[in-house]
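Folded chain entry —
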Amino acid sequence: MSASMTANALTIDVISDVVCPWCYIGKRFLEQAIASKPDIPVEVHFRPYFLNPWVPPEGISREEYLITKFGSVERYNSNNNRVVEAAAAAGLSYNRDRITRQPNTLDCHRLILWAERAGKAAAMKQRLMELYFSEGGDLTQADVLVGAAADCGLDREEARALLASRQGVEEVEAAAESAKQAGIEGVPCFVIGGMIALSGAQPPEYLAAAIERAAAEQARVAAE
C-alpha cells in the first residue's frame, strides 16, 4: 500500500492486530479502495491494537488459545468458515490448520512501528500476517520476526537488536491503550481524515466512498 507524503494527503489510520483475520482481509480491502481512487493522495498509518492482551509474551499453543477463547477447536472452526471464505474471495490465503502457536503481538507491533520510519510499515504488516495466516509461522520466535523484517528489505541485525531491547514497547502500549480509551472495541477500525471512523472489514467500495467524502470535506475546510 503506497502512502503519499504530499501536504494535502488524506490521513488514514488503521487500528488493527496482525492475528486478527478480519484485519488481514480489511487491509486488502483498503488497498483496493485506495487503488480505485488514484486521484486522492493518502497517507496510511498502522496503529497497534491487542486483540488478546492476556496471551503471555512467550505465546501459548493455538489449541489452548482456541479452547480458552472459544470453548473448543471444533466450535471455532465451525464458526470460522465464513472468514476463511472471505479471505479467499479477497485473494488471501488463510490456512488455519497450519497455525500452531498463538503469539502475544507486542513485538510484531514494535517491528511495524520501526518499519514505518523506513516507509515499510505496510510491507511489514503484510508479511507478518502472511506468515501467521498463510504459512503458520510462529510469531513468538525472534528468528521468524527477524526473517520477516529481512523479507521487507530491512536490516536483519537491526531488527534483532530492536527485539532484544525495549525500544518501542512504551510507545506501542500507549497507542494500544489510547485506542481502547477511544472506545475502539473491535478491529479493524479505519479512521479516515480524522473525521470518519469505520469498524470492521468494510467492502472496498464502501471504504472508497468514505475516502472520497473525507477528501472532499478536507478540501472544503482548506479552501475556507
About this structure: The domain at 10-223 is CATH 3.40.30.10 (Glutaredoxin). The two ends are 31 Å apart (CA to CA).
